[in-house]
């Protein structure tokens, strides 16, 4: 005579509930987050930052360097957010940088495994987790407003700018 386990119905019920949750969720919603932290650094530090969303609402103001937490969605169906970051520092040209939400890999490919069509068209488009803000980090090098001679250590010049440098002379040693 076989004895029936009391936990069999419980196990099958839990497994069924788990499958139901996965089928009613989008992949990006399962593994993602609806907001992200964007690092903003300026050279020189201390620039004033103003971040506005697609509707023109100011969502952050402060000084660089900063870490800004931003929602990735407008809250509307397929509403990827766009931000404008205004960077300004006395004596330097102001700069505007745009952050745009783009669909991420979890949304594009993860829904093949989890969520399927429900994930692609019903769940993830309402949730900001399907997006990644680009660029994910920001570094701005201030440009002077007027023609100015700046003396700096070579170690302080970013590697990508060193290639464009032109040697104009050299100090003599005593």
Walk me through what this model shows.
With 174 residues, the protein is of the alpha+beta class. The chain is elongated, with a radius of gyration of 25 Å. Strands 3-2-5-6-7 form a five-stranded antiparallel beta sheet. The chain has a three-stranded mixed beta sheet with strand order 4-1-8, with no helix packed on it. It has helices at 7-23, 27-31, 105-108, 116-123, 159-162, and strands spanning 35-43, 48-52, 58-63, 66-71, 82-88, 95-103, 131-134, 137-141. A hairpin with a 6-residue loop joins strand 5 and strand 6 (95-103). 22% of the residues lie in helices and 29% in strands. The chain starts with 6 loop residues before the first helix and ends in a 12-residue tail after the last helix. It has one domain (16-162).
């Amino acid at each position: 005579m076989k004895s029936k386990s009391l936990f069999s119905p419980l196990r099958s019920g839990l497994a069924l509930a788990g499958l139901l949750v996965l089928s009613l969720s989008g992949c990006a919603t399962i593994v993602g987050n609806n907001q992200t932290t964007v690092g903003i650094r300026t050279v020189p530090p201390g620039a004033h930052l103003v971040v506005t969303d697609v509707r023109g609402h100011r969502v952050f103001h402060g000084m660089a360097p900063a870490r800004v937490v931003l929602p990735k969605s407008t809250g509307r169906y397929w509403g990827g957010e766009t931000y404008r970051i205004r960077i300004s520092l006395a004596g330097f040209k102001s700069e505007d940088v745009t952050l745009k939400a783009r669909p991420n890999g979890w949304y594009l490919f993860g829904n093949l495994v989890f969520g399927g069509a429900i994930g692609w068209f019903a769940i993830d488009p309402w949730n900001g987790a399907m997006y990644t803000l680009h660029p994910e980090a920001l570094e701005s090098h201030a440009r002077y407003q007027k023609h100015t001679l700046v003396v700096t250590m070579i170690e302080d010049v970013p590697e990508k700018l060193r290639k464009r440098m032109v040697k104009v002379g050299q100090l003599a040693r005593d």
